[in-house]
Amino acid sequence: MRSTSVEEARSFLLERARPITEIERIDTIHGVGRILAEDILSPIDVPGYDNSAMDGYAVRSEDIATEGETSLAIGRRIAAGESAPEYTLKSDEAARIFTGAPIPDGADSVVMQEHCRVVGDTVSIRGPVSPGMNIRPRGNDIRADTSVLSAGIRLTPQALGLAASIGLSSIPVSRRLRVAILSSGNEVVQPGTPLQAGQCYDSNRHTLFGLLANLGCEILDLGTIPDDFDATEVALREAASQADVVITSGGVSVGEEDHIKRVVETIGHLDLWRIAVKPGKPLAYGRILDADFIGLPGNPVSVLVTFCLFVRPMLIRRQGAVPSIPLPRFVSAGFQWPRAGDRREYARARLVPAEDEGLPKAVLFERQGSDVLSSAVWADGLVEIPPGTVIALGDKVAYLPFAELLG
Ligand code: AMP
Ligand code: MG
Prior knowledge:
20% of the residues lie in helices and 32% in strands. By secondary structure, it is of the alpha/beta class.
């Protein structure tokens, strides 16, 4: 078994991630979280015409170039949605105008209504008024033939709004990545059935399902594999024939009840690493048929941490998107770490506000075992503790919020 660093393992997986190449067109309105598959150029200017940024009066600024009040005749009324193509603002005239309405020919400025006084059929405006005031020129947001969205972005609500603003009712996105998930272990049973002695409920598949759902994957939830070579082989072949990526939890240590490793070695190809990380030491990557295989450790906290550190960046690239490696922020240790470890450790932590002007303080959940899933629910992130390090109260430590780790 190879021993490797977090960075090495992550780069190894990223290098092997083959981005999805199949493209499908979907309704723009349903695109949130999908990966844009092609660069988008705008066919139009947005806005398509000069328009008013205010409710007020469109004027010729030259009519109100001086200080003091100028009185103008009120001409045409132009509301949003109207156009007045044949209309030209005369001199000493103001057009009543509303936000989003087209600026009439002749006008070069809009005076907001709060600065206007209507007297009968005239409007009195205090000068001077400069040209261009409160006008949103054509193309102010987007110019025709320019690039507005790049291939590989994960579509946000605002990106979809932008796509709609240039008139796209549908957009090209990468096919959803199909990910099969399986738990392993004779002791693992499904919630909803009574527990017998020696059994535990399958938390990992639920954690993984949520993690993958957040990434917008199509999930094939294939249940549990017993600790048996033949059953494992059948289950993994079946999973690999349907999915782009197969993720299992448990059964990848080197004990004789850990069949997943042996099966993948037999029917495919496997790299198994002892990663210098805690929690999460054993992690397997391989291929079965044309699917990628990821074997996560069995312990529930290890599943979460290894998913965040290794699997998520790889899946993001596999989806056709650009993965971002989470950057830690530095906070003050609100805990002591008196014994140096030999692996990099990711401790479940919460931030509390600084007492004075200083950095926020990270405090740790009291039990840091990889079986203690409560720690990951209590925590809002992970403190990264390098190997060979002791930490005293107030030392600077690197903190990765779950919000960043999980996107
Ligand atoms: P293993 O890697 O299969 O030896 O599993 C390590 C530990 O994780 C054991 O205590 C298992 O019972 C536990 N475990 C494995 N799979 C799951 C699961 N799906 N849900 C909860 N605990 C699990
Ligand atoms: Mg097991």
